[in-house]
Design brief:
This protein is mostly beta strands. Helix content is 0%, strand content 50%.
Length: 118
């Protein structure tokens, strides 16, 4: 069974930065598209960033120019660098994987809480 484990969440002040990391196991990591979703209280899941097996990236408008997704297939990891954080970025962040962008939500990690507050 595919396992995705996130780390790096926490409490940060507005304008600060955090780096989330996700390590995958029991998965041919290099063949999968990877994504980061988030869910804020009372809201639906939102795909904030994705990266294809070939390294092409895409971002939600709300995080463009502030967030950067990257992957290291040798280490089975995908990271999300988050800069200039805003209170509205507060959410549980989930790492996901799928064989294509269309199925990027096939596998989910357990999530990591990010809280942006002064």
């Amino acid at each position: 069974q595919v396992q995705l484990v996130e780390s790096g969440g926490g409490l940060v002040q507005p304008g600060g930065s955090l780096r989330l990391s996700c390590v995958g196991s029991r998965i041919i990591f290099g063949r999968h598209a990877m994504g980061w979703y988030r869910q804020a209280p009372g809201k639906q899941h939102e795909l904030v960033a994705s990266i294809t097996s070939g390294g092409r990236t895409n971002y939600a408008d709300a995080v463009k120019s502030r967030f950067t997704i990257s992957r290291d297939n040798a280490k089975n990891t995908v990271d999300l660098q988050m800069n200039s954080l805003k209170p509205e970025d507060t959410a549980v962040y989930y790492c996901t994987a799928g064989l294509t962008i269309a199925t990027i939500n096939s596998y989910w990690g357990q999530g990591t809480q990010v809280t942006v507050s002064s």
